[in-house]
Amino acid sequence: MKKLKNEAQLVKKALQVGESYAKNRGYAEFSRTTSANAKIEALYRLLVKDNLVVALPPDKEDIPSMKHKLAIWIDKMLPADHELKQVS
Question: Which helix (H) or strand (E) holds 18?
Answer without folding.
Answer: helix 7-24
